[in-house]
Amino acid sequence: MAATMTTVVKGTEESGNFFSRMAWYYQMLVLLLLTALLIWGTDLMLYSNTRKDTDSIKEKAEKLKAKNVQGSIIVQNLPAVEQTLKEKREEIDRLRDLLPDQVQISSVYDNIKDFLREQKLELKRFVHMKSVSLDFYTAQPIQIEVTGSYDSLGQFFSRLGFYSRIVSVTPASTTSTCPVTQRASSLAR
């Protein structure tokens, strides 16, 4: 038995698969489309969460930039506020000097006697009462009784208003003893 083999040559249109039978420019187009689809799929699977995180971080950064602008305004005003605070602290220190820690009745008594002598008033009675502790200071009520002219009494009260310590004159009453002299009684703190 003799075997013979014959080969049949097909034309170029009939050889190979579907892809290899296409023209080269169509093959290139299909490969480019497949490559783009592969890149898009990979990007979607691997980088979509990262892109979302990046967008949210950018939004937060924009919000923080707006807050920084507000903060820079505050920082610009800070020296003025510190200066005002320093001035207020100095004012508080000056006012605290007017309110000594302990009541000094003897110096108050001497000063009131000097005021009375200047105004030609006569001190009839000087009585200091029990101290009263308040929030920021201790009040020392003093009851005095003075005799003199109405004008001198007014000048005495005016002088108390400019006294270096804080003085509050509460209930003050005047009585006429005679047409020339008048008598005043008051409670000073």
What does this structure look like?
The chain has three helices and six strands, in the order ααββββαββ. The chain is an alpha+beta fold and about 190 residues long. It folds into two domains: about 15-100, no CATH class; about 105-189, Alpha-Beta Plaits (2-Layer Sandwich), CATH 3.30.70. A four-stranded antiparallel β-sheet has the order 1-4-6-5. A two-stranded antiparallel ribbon has the order 2-3. Strand 5 and strand 6 (about 180-189) form a beta hairpin. The protein is rod-shaped.
Short description:
The protein is α+β, with helices and mostly antiparallel strands. Helix content is 53%, strand content 17%. It has two domains: 15-98, no CATH class; 105-188, Alpha-Beta Plaits.
Rg = 51 Å
Strand order of the largest sheet: 1-4-6-5
Average pLDDT over all residues: 80
H/E element sequence: HHEEEEHEE
Largest sheet: 4 strands, antiparallel
- The helical percent reads 40-55%
Number of spatially distinct domains: 2
> What class, by secondary structure content?
alpha+beta
Shape: rod-shaped
Query: Between the first and last Cα atoms, what is the distance in angstroms?
Result: 147 Å
Count up the helices.
3
Low-confidence stretches: none
The beta-strand count equals 6
Question: What is the beta-strand fraction?
Answer: 15-25%
